[in-house]
Design goal:
With 323 residues, the chain is of the alpha/beta class. The protein folds into two domains: 27-186, 3-Layer(aba) Sandwich (Rossmann fold); 195-322, Nitrogenase molybdenum iron protein domain (Rossmann fold, 3-Layer(aba) Sandwich), CATH 3.40.50.1980. 34% of the residues lie in helices and 16% in strands. It is built from 13 helices and 16 strands. The protein has helices spanning 8-14, 78-86, 104-107, 120-125, 138-145, 159-172, 176-197, 224-231, 249-255, 271-276, 285-288, 297-300, 307-318; strands at 33-34, 38-40, 48-50, 54-57, 63-66, 73-75, 93-95, 110-112, 130-133, 151-153, 207-211, 217-219, 235-236, 244-246, 259-262, 292-294. The strands form six sheets. A four-stranded parallel beta sheet has the order 13-11-15-16. It has a three-stranded antiparallel beta sheet with strand order 1-4-5, with helices on one face. Strand 7, helix 3 and strand 8 (110-112) form a beta-alpha-beta unit. Helix 6 (159-172) packs antiparallel against helix 7 and helix 7 packs parallel to helix 13. It is globular, with a radius of gyration of 20 Å.
Length: 323
């Protein structure tokens, strides 16, 4: 699961979260586009009720019809699990990487050991009426869909996409009011962060190196982590490259970041020390000023309700004086 170099993009998508962030760079994919009609709530009640059957277009452009309100959801993506739990709709099964909220594994009937290769027989035995999946390979997606159970794929590539994912999950589960409230609170917090960062003169913005692997892989333009860095007021030193890329040591030294983030200490507790002790890095501003900061990968990489917490943590780490 942690064979990082070989399955780098998969790990980012799944952990992105998980242990993984979180995020791939498939551009131009359709966003969540709920298509089903909705009916107004009678007698002056607030909000909308979902009308089933519900048809949506998911994040890989697949049209999915959900015949009735799902009551037995299998979630194979930690960020989707977090969204469901925030809505009060705990899934019946999750992966072993789903660790938030703390009680999710107590309420889930089963825990799948391997989200990259889930046990299809076990899924069928659970008799689910919906599967929430992630952007896996076409072959893996085909296997899941062969079960004949509605499958909705989530793959948010921006904070705005996260809001859409929450809204879509709210519509799927007939929890639209709860979803709207979650989104409202997230946007309010994002606004407060943005207002604080607005005080910052452009010339005082700090350069950031985001290290997601000891082999110097990083998040370039078009990735989820790039957006988090830039919305947190930082300048991503890898902003001139697209997607997930590998730098060499000389490139990082030449770009001289003011702040270094690492988010792989879950697999290597000595990550920050490794960075600090690298030959030639002693003159990098971030190293000289002891600005090597470990980020919780489960928060920074999961495209769910906690992503604004990740934004706040990142902004505070870059500009502690503003917070």
């Amino acid at each position: 699961m942690r064979r990082f170099t070989a399955v780098f993009l998969i790990v980012i998508v799944l952990f992105t979260l998980i242990l993984s962030g979180c995020s791939t760079t498939n551009q131009g994919q359709p966003q969540n586009q709920p298509q089903a009609s909705q009916e107004e709530v009678p007698d002056g009640e607030q909000g909308l009720k979902t009308k089933y059957p519900l048809t949506i277009v998911d994040d890989i452009g697949a049209t999915v019809t959900i015949p009735a309100k799902p009551t037995r959801i299998v979630s194979l993506l930690p960020s989707s699990t977090e969204i469901l739990c925030a809505l009060g709709e705990y899934p019946v099964a999750v992966t072993k990487w789903d660790d938030y909220p703390a009680d999710v594994k107590e309420k889930a009937e089963y825990v799948f050991e391997d989200a990259l290769n889930p046990n299809l027989e076990q899924i069928l035995n659970l008799e689910p009426d919906l599967i929430m999946y992630w952007l896996a390979s076409a072959e893996d997606t085909k296997k899941i869909k062969s079960l004949g159970i509605p499958v909705v794929v989530f793959e948010a590539k921006s904070i705005d996409d996260v809001y859409k994912s929450i809204a879509t999950a709210g519509q799927i589960t007939d929890k639209q009011e709860q979803a709207a409230l979650i989104i409202e609170e997230m946007k309010a917090k994002e606004k407060r962060i943005t207002e604080k960062l607005a005080q910052l003169p452009v010339q005082e913005k700090r350069k950031v190196w985001m290290e997601v692997d000891s082999k110097l892989f990083t998040a370039g333009k078009g990735t989820f982590l790039h957006e988090v860095i830039t919305k947190a007021g930082g300048i991503n030193i890898a902003e001139d490259v697209q997607g997930w890329v590998q730098f060499n040591s000389e490139q990082v030294i030449a770009r001289n970041p003011d702040v270094i983030f690492e988010n792989y200490s879950y697999s290597n507790p000595n990550a920050a020390k490794i960075i600090k002790d690298r030959k030639g890095w002693e003159n990098i501003e971030a190293v000289k000023n002891n600005r090597i900061i470990s980020l919780d990968n489960n928060i920074i990489s999961r495209q769910g309700p906690r992503i604004i917490d990740a934004l706040e943590l990142t902004a505070k780490a870059i500009y502690p004086e503003l917070f």
